[in-house]
Each structure stands twice: as structure tokens, then as C-alpha cells.
From TrEMBL:
Major location (coarse): membrane
Swiss-Prot/TrEMBL keywords: Cell membrane, Membrane, Transmembrane, Transmembrane helix
Source organism superkingdom: Bacteria
Protein name, entry field: Probable membrane transporter protein
Membrane-traversing stretches: 43-61, 73-90, 96-116, 137-158, 170-188, 195-216, 228-246
Similarity comment: Belongs to the 4-toluene sulfonate uptake permease (TSUP) (TC 2.A.102) family.
Originating organism: Chitinophaga japonensis
Any one of the GO CC terms: plasma membrane
Matches recorded under Pfam families: TauE
Subcellular location(s) of the protein: Cell membrane; Membrane
InterPro entries: TM_pro_TauE-like (IPR002781), TSUP/Inactive_protease-like (IPR051598)
PANTHER family: MEMBRANE TRANSPORTER PROTEIN MJ0441-RELATED (PTHR43701), MEMBRANE TRANSPORTER PROTEIN-RELATED (PTHR43701:SF5)
Length: 247
């Protein structure tokens, strides 16, 4: 089982990191389909997010596609709310209900970008628009903490709909957003004593996503366009989300 998951996690990390994402939504979808314990799922997905987007943040910053001031402004409210969301007590049934909703919404966002977003140009008058995204960041932070998803999969289409920045800069901003929210989520789990780490299960998966993430982030910072990532992964996420809601 772990071998198959390692291969799939590697591919997901490669694809998602090329778009500035950590892959948490797909990691959770796969582990849910494999029947992994829900607490282990949350901790492992967040750890994999952290190791993927850490490399992504570095490469996007070095390539000039991570405006740090905007990244900090977008994350200012979301980080404490991710901690709160992770700290909230959740029963297993409630977790899978929320996760099913979160995955289904993520897949719909990805399908929108794939089928309806024909062209994208940033709004040149965007200097003050970051403040109106504060409430959105707060809500995404709560959801990311509760489910173990870093939140970039929701932030990216919102920023693109608002034409907030260039596509590459949005990918860099999402990498940073996912990193700090994932760390906050792990701290929230640790604070209530529910962080679950199984070395024989998590370490091979983390190694797989490190390798995949490094390859993907280098490809994105260089020449790869991230648009097709949604098409590769949306069906998997949609299937897992609908399946959880159905059961």
C-alpha cells in the first residue's frame, strides 16, 4: 500500500508544486480512498504540504515570483485561524463531511479554471486590493486547519478572479500561504495532543513529495505553465469528495 501511495504522492507533488500548491487536497483524497485513519491523514497531509511548498517558496522567491509584502498581508489573518480550526475538536464523521465538501469545492474551482478561464491578465490597479481578501483568507484558514488542506487551492482562483497579480506571482503567493497555514495547522494539532506521526507510513511519503516537489517547482519557476494541473487532478478530487459525501 505504501509503495503505491509513494508513487502517487510523487506525481501529485510534481504536478501541484508546478502551480504553487502543496497537494494536500489530493493527498487527503488518496488516503481517504485507502482507508487511512483520519487523524493520521490530517497530520500526514500537512507534513507533506510543508515539505513540498518549502522548496516552492524558495524557488519562487529566487525567480522573483514571490512578493513577500503581499504574501504576509494575505496570511496575516489566515494563520491564527488555521491554528484555531486545527484546534477545534472534530468527530470522525464531521471531519469526513467537511473534507468531502472541501474536496468537491476544490474540484469545482479547478474545473472552472480549466474550462471557463480562457485568458488571464492582471489588473494593473491592484495596489490596495489585498485588504479585501482578508476575510477570505480568514475563512480559508479555518477550513485548512479543520481539514488538513493548506488552502492554496481556494486562494488561487479567488486571486485570479480578482486579477490580483500575474499567474506566476499568484503561484508563489499560494506556496507561501500554504506553508504558513500548514505549519499553523500542525501546531494546532500538537497543542491539543492529536498530532499523529507514524514514521514507517509518513516518512516514505514525505521523501516522495520532496523529490516530486523539487522537480515541479523548478519546472514552474522556469518554463512550465501550471494551467493543465487542474485537468490532471480535478477528477480524482471530485470523485473522492462526492464519495465521502455519499457515504
Amino acid at each position: 500500500m505504501v509503495i503505491e501511495l509513494c508513487l502517487l504522492f510523487f506525481l501529485i507533488a510534481l504536478l501541484y508544486s508546478s502551480a504553487g500548491f502543496g497537494g494536500g487536497s489530493s493527498y487527503l483524497a488518496l488516503m481517504a480512498l485507502w482507508g487511512i485513519d483520519f487523524q493520521l491523514m490530517k497530520s500526514t497531509a500537512l507534513l507533506c504540504n510543508v515539505v513540498v511548498v518549502t522548496g516552492g517558496v524558495y524557488h519562487f522567491y529566487r525567480s522573483g515570483h514571490l512578493p513577500l509584502k503581499r504574501a504576509l498581508q494575505l496570511s496575516l489573518v489566515s494563520v491564527p485561524m488555521a491554528f484555531v480550526g486545527s484546534y477545534l475538536p472534530l468527530k470522525q464523521a464531521t471531519f469526513f463531511l467537511l473534507l468531502g465538501i472541501a474536496l468537491t469545492l476544490a474540484a469545482l474551482f479547478m474545473c472552472y479554471r480549466l474550462f471557463f478561464e480562457k485568458s488571464y491578465m492582471p489588473d494593473p490597479d491592484r495596489s490596495q486590493k489585498v485588504y479585501k481578501y482578508g476575510i477570505t483568507g480568514m475563512l480559508i484558514g479555518v477550513l485548512s486547519g479543520m481539514t488538513g488542506i493548506g488552502g492554496g487551492i481556494y486562494l488561487a482562483p479567488i486571486l485570479r478572479l480578482g486579477r490580483y497579480d500575474t499567474a506566476k506571482n499568484i503561484a508563489g503567493l499560494c506556496s507561501f500561504f500554504i506553508l504558513v497555514n500548514s505549519i499553523a495547522g500542525l501546531l494546532g494539532q500538537a497543542a491539543k495532543g492529536e498530532i499523529v506521526f507514524s514514521p514507517h507510513f509518513a516518512l516514505p511519503l514525505m521523501l516522495s513529495v520532496i523529490v516530486g516537489g523539487q522537480i515541479g517547482s523548478r519546472m514552474s519557476a522556469g518554463w512550465l505553465k501550471p494551467r493543465w494541473v487542474e485537468g490532471v487532478t480535478a477528477l480524482l478530487i471530485l470523485y473522492a469528495g462526492v464519495r465521502m459525501l455519499w457515504h
